[in-house]
Records
---
Amino acid sequence: MTGSERQALIESATTQNGQLILNGKALAAIIEAELKARVSAIIEKTGRTPALATIIVGENPASVTYVRMKGRACERIGLEPRRIALPEETTTEELLAKIRELNADPEVCGILLQHPAPKQIDENRCFNEIDPEKDVDGVNAQSYGNVALGGNGFVAATPGGIIRILKEYGIQIEGKEAVVIGRSRILGKPAAMLLLRENATVTVTHTKTADLPQVVRRADIVVACVGKPEFVKAEWIKPGAVLIDAGYNAGNVGDIDLKNAAPLASAYTPVPGGVGPMTICTLMEQTVKAAEKRLEN
């Protein structure tokens, strides 16, 4: 993103009282325009359209919606959205076989296994079967390890989107105290790792954390990812903190009580329109990177 685009974005997102509304939807639109040009260049050089394969097992309504949104994002930037729908009763071995098939498909540059899978599926085993070169959702243990150790693996999409939002809106991370509420494999833990990589001082909280409100009150940056509507209360927030709400619950409600907490913040992500669009944007960007790398080889 150019300096002028960044400045215009920040100015458009600044409220009258000086707060920044971290509009992920607006930021994603700017990045998607860049990605569309990069995909066009790939197609022109190769004569082939890179594909993102999205595997969905069963018909979980939320998962169906997310897969549809990702498909539309592919279409906007020129990627081929390849949807693989498997029945609810699919076994781990059957899913592993499908992943191996996609690993070997030269047209497929990215593979995404939609979470959550049905209970009989060993998700970790299936995540780890994805070729790290195609793991554009950053869920493979090798990808995670590469990033944790300072390598160039693909990052988990939602945490990667969070870091991009903070950077593009000029939010300082280095030297700040960040509190991550939640420790899931695909969100809380990788978010903490990426914040640490940006030189924040990071605390990860969870169900066993003692006096959670007091821990959160220390934070310059709060990342909420617990999956509970309005779990984080306004009285937990230090004035001037940056609020990143990575939750999405029924009724377009996040994990932070934004109605009461946002006025205390210096910047915050709205729900919807904050973290969600940047999750999909990160997935698209990493698929384009995977396609470009294959072109180089």
---
Amino acid sequence: MEVKLLRVTEEGIDLVAEAAKVSGVFSTQSAKEIVELIVDNDYSSVLEHIDLTFDISRISVALSRELLEHRIASHTARSTRYMEEKGFGYYVPRELERKGKEEEARIYREAMKNAKEAYTKLRELGIAKEQARYVLPLALHTHYVVTMNVRSLLNFFMLRLCVRAAPEIRELTMRMYKICLEEYPAIFSNIWCRGFTLGVCPENEVRPNECPFKKILPKKQEIKGKFEERAKRIIEKELKTF
């Protein structure tokens, strides 16, 4: 997997601060203070003025489908309809690279070999790329360009930095996060998974033992349970006013 930054909005901190002043943020604060206030209080719409474009290569088609779930972004992917895929590269799950998984790895690689042979044979028989591509596996390496604004990136990081995220997309997220942190530390230094960012973990009982925050962050259901009944009565009262 390779991740490169193609383009980033320059002087984004000043841009966001100036935009925030339009909506009423005190002009006496510095640009950095305004941005920190925005991030801390989740006044995040103004962060959409900053865009980052990433070039992502040697990821699987399966991962690219997960990226498409993040719809507030611009997506461009290598086309299997127009590009030749003979001798394609593919993603190998880390679990198959562990000691003791030799047989499982053999079965996996054999499946990739069979897919390559089937695709190549179909192409040699004159089958068009857009038809032959249906034998290609989800593990197929693809090339991807994605542009996200900072608000979308914050959501992306909060979801995909969680230890429960699929391993390949979590690795991608880590690489993208490091780039964002280097470009705009004032925005991203206090952002991680939802549990860290919100101070309470919505994963509740499904948090695995490898979660580094499991012993220090409360579960959402624990916090909500303390006030839920009283809050429901308040909501009922509020509804009666309309």
